[in-house]
Amino acid sequence: MEVVLQSLAVVLQPAHLLMLICGVVMGLSIGILPGLGGIVGMTILLPVIYGMDPHSAFGLLIGMVAVIPTSDTFPSVMMGIPGSSASQATIMDGYPLAKKGEAARALGAAFTASLIGGLFGALVLTLIIPIARPIVLAFGSPELFMLALLGMSMVGVLSGNKPIKGMLAAGIGVMIGALGDAPAVPEYRYTFGIDYLMDGVPLVVVGLGLFAFPEIVDLLIKGRSISEVPTLGKGWLDGVKDTLRHKFIVLRCSVIGVVVGFLPGLGGSVVDWIAYGHIIQTSRDRENFGKGDIRGVIAPESANNAKEGGGLIPTFLFGIPGSGSMAVFLGGLLILGIQPGPSMVTEHIDLMYTAIWSLALANVFGAILSIALSKPITRLTIIPFSYLAPFMVLIITFACYQATRSWGDLIALLLMGILGWVMKQYGWPRPAALIGYVLSDNLETYLFISVQRYGFEWLTRTGVIVLAAIIIGSLVMGVFYQARKSFKTKASGEGNGK
Amino acid sequence: MESKFHYLGLIFSAFVMLAFGYGIYESLSYAYLAKIFPLYISLVLCVLAIINLIQEIKTFRRGPKTESTGAADLDSEWGDFAMSEVLRRFSVFIVVIIVLYALVWLIGYPLSITLFIIILYRYVTRTKWHWAIVAGLAGLGFLALVSKLLYMDWPEGVVKLPWPLG
Questions:
Q1: I want to staple A31 with a disulfide (CB 3.0 to 4.6 A). Which of A68, A131, A374, A444 is the partner?
Q2: Cβ(A98)–Cβ(A230) under 8 Å?
Q3: What are residue B97's phi and psi, to 5 degrees?
Q4: How far is B160 from chain A (nearest CA, A)?
């Protein structure tokens, strides 16, 4: 309890609060730009946190990632375009509500649901630490290796339409992570004689190349612009009341959010759909869904904020990121000199509680700022992307150059950008590649330590066998599920054809 | 999706397979402890890449069809755009970035990015010249402020210019 209060005192220090608010404001700005989400936002921040005190850096990073699922509601409700992948389902009922002149009600409900969901995620994270502590401490390198493998296999199987492409995408990430110096021996791999590659490709370059670059290109190609200024209408308070009236929906969907956030591979892009599907399935009166039912806004919004708390659990305790943005956060921890994993509950427990308090406070600030600044933010959503694109190019090239301050960063950004764009067009899940990249080093190090310390006996440890069984089970189930889905699609296609 | 565009997807799958094949070949020349990890990973992935390529060829021969990106990614939905037009615009963007890099090499980052913003505002967004210049100067101001506050650096050009232009 003492450490919890000490962390609260740290979080309430002016310097930390300032960083937190900076993160929140940046998160709000990134969230309203269609297509750009937590991965891009966090990656842009990585060069800034070099040499920063970890508590302040946590404020910045968590402040940003916590509020993106709040602010991405603006474009979803006002324009019918997802601000990020976590707010796609909000469009289903949020946009029809806006067209009816009830945008303020939809936003009021969404922000309240986001706030409660976010706080719920932080609460679960707080409760899980003392429970998970003995389990985490029992994990050695072999179990951590298997856990990383489990994360990779789940990401591969769950993150795309085809499990094989998901696994290959994760593999592409692992191989990019394997470039440069080997962790076990002084040898450089796959460098093609290029000095820049001796230290490997930096996370900033990989993250911005795979995610920001393709989104900027796509948005420029589409040349999206809005012809009319959307109006907010009235009903802020009605929205808040709606959320409080449907408190059990908020609670249920927050639980869904935490669980989905905890599982590697699912992440932001499905959590909202799972919550939306759940609320349709469990409602008796379904006829208004898709036409402007407020429950269709509350459900995905409470789930997508709660998932951040869930996602921090495996990231902190096992060093296994649950989603792309958590993969970048993991990279941020390494930049700060913090090795995620069991040492978090022994050496850095104060930082974990700092993260939790920051998460809770960021959700509060995010909701307040979203409501207070709703009018100017709404006007921002109508700016055509071609006005923002040159500044986005400035930000990503400048941020990339900070990685090693060499030309290699800029050239690697362009190559990674082309790779990311092609992957996006042909159904290769990029979050799987990013998570593979981040886990690559850990996978190799844990494997190396396991073999050096236990020989081949590490394979006979109980934890390893249990995790291996789970990996095989998840792979088989994933492949079986996809095969059944494609069989059903074919059958329905043939049925329609007849 | 047009068949030509789908064909490029096949080429990418083949490229991935070849990349993992190269991963195996190259790793064989490393010391034992350096090669274990990339060798086994590449081996498994190369087999998967071959299976994937065979599946893609089968799909292609059955007739190209639209594939969505799936659960973890935002789909690229092009709507009314012809894929040839998408590829053309993508190529133009890449050329613009390469020209920007060439300019950075010559005159340094700040002036290049300022000119880049001005030209894009003038000719892509069709903004008036004075607003385009204001946007460019805003970019330069942002760059100068951030680099001073956070001790950040930028690429210098062959032609040395006074701060904050080069």
A1: A68
A2: yes
A3: -65, -40
A4: 17
Contact A432, A169 (CB under 8 A): yes
Query: Angle, nearest 10°, between helix axes A385-401 and A213-222?
Result: 160
- Could you give the CA distance from residue A472 to residue B118 in angstroms, rounded to a whole number? 55
Spell out the residues 6+ positions from residue A381 whose beta carbon is closer than 8 angstroms to its own: A32, A74, A75, A78, A79, A226, A230
Helix (H) or strand (E) segment spanning residue A474: helix A462-497
What is the Cβ-side half-sphere exposure of residue A422, based on CA atoms within 13 angstroms? 19
Check B139 against A391: CB less than 8 A apart. yes
| Closest chain A residue to the Cα of B138, Cα to Cα | A391
Handedness of CA A138, A140, A143, A149 (dihedral sign): positive
Give the whole-angstrom CA distance, residue A235 versus residue B60.
52
Would you call A390 helix, strand, or coil by DSSP?
A: helix
Q: Are A261 and A310 within 8 A, CB to CB?
A: yes
Identity of the residue in A220, A391, A407 whose CB atom sits nearest the CB atom of B93 = A220
d(CA A467, CA A134): 18
Residues in A closer than 8 angstroms to B20, CB to CB, are 171, 175
Quote the CA–CA distance of A63 and A210 in Å, as a whole number.
23
Please tell me whether residue B62 adopts helix, strand or coil conformation.
helix
Which residues on chain B are in Cβ contact (under 8 Å) with A35?
74
Cβ atoms of A258 and A121 within 8 Å: the answer is yes
- Name the residue of chain B whose CA is nearest to A211's CA: B73
The amino acid sitting at A397 is T
Cα radius of gyration (chain B): 23
CA distance A373 to A149: 44
Please tell me what DSSP assigns to residue A427.
T
* A353-381 burial code (b ≥16 CB/10 A, e <16): bbbbbbbbbbbebbbebbbeebeebbeeb
Q: What is chain B's length?
A: 166
Alpha helices in A294-348 (DSSP H): 295-318, 324-335
Report the DSSP beta bridge partners of residue A181: A188
SS (H, E, C) A137-199: HCCCHHHHHHHHHHHHHHHHHHCCCCHHHHHHHHHHHHHHHCCEECCCCCCEECCCCCHHHHH
Residues B120, A390: C-beta atoms closer than 8 Å: yes
Beta-bridge mates of residue A300: none
Pull the structure tokens for residue A330.
Answer: 């993991």
pLDDT of residue A198: 94
Chain centroid to CA A432: 12
Q: What is the pLDDT along chain A (498 residues), one digit of tens a residue?
A: 778 888 889 889 998 899 999 999 988 888 777 666 778 888 888 888 888 888 889 889 989 888 887 888 887 888 776 666 677 788 889 888 888 888 889 999 999 999 999 999 999 988 888 887 777 778 888 988 888 888 788 777 766 677 889 889 999 999 999 999 998 788 999 999 999 999 999 999 999 999 889 988 888 887 765 434 567 777 788 899 999 999 999 999 999 999 888 876 555 567 888 888 888 888 888 788 888 899 999 999 999 889 888 888 888 888 888 777 888 888 888 888 888 888 888 888 888 889 889 989 998 999 899 888 887 877 776 677 788 889 989 999 998 998 899 999 999 999 999 999 999 888 898 888 988 898 898 889 888 888 888 888 889 999 899 989 988 887 887 777 767 766 766 666 555 443
Of A175, A187, A429, nearest to B41 by CB-CB distance is A175
Cα(A435)–Cα(A322) distance, integer angstroms: 8
Instruction: Report residue B132 as tokens.
Output: 């385009």
* Amino acid (1-letter code) at residue A302: S
